[in-house]
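Q: Structure tokens for this one, please.
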Amino acid sequence: MTEFSKKLDFGKTAVDYGRHRADFPSRFFDALFETGKVCKGDRVLDLGTGAGVLARGLALRDWVVTGLDRSRGLLDEAKRLDREAGVSIRYVQATESSL
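A: Here is the predicted structure, written as tokens:
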């Protein structure tokens, strides 16, 4: 990890990120199911989940999702958006020592 990347904190823009980051289109998730490689109820790890856009889309389609990110601010925003969407996702904050 570089010194520059250690100083980045997307959590400072978490509310804006959550407000303006577009959802994935339904056809994206439909395509995942159509391949037959994934099924409802599968467990998924969303690395770098940010505000949980992908994780939430998967959870809304009955996947069991864990989101991982290093930014506490983004994870807090993801949890807020999850409550609005009525989904439950497990979020884990990656610490610098775990990266």
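A few notes: The first helix runs from residue 3 to 7. The longest strand covers residues 64-69.
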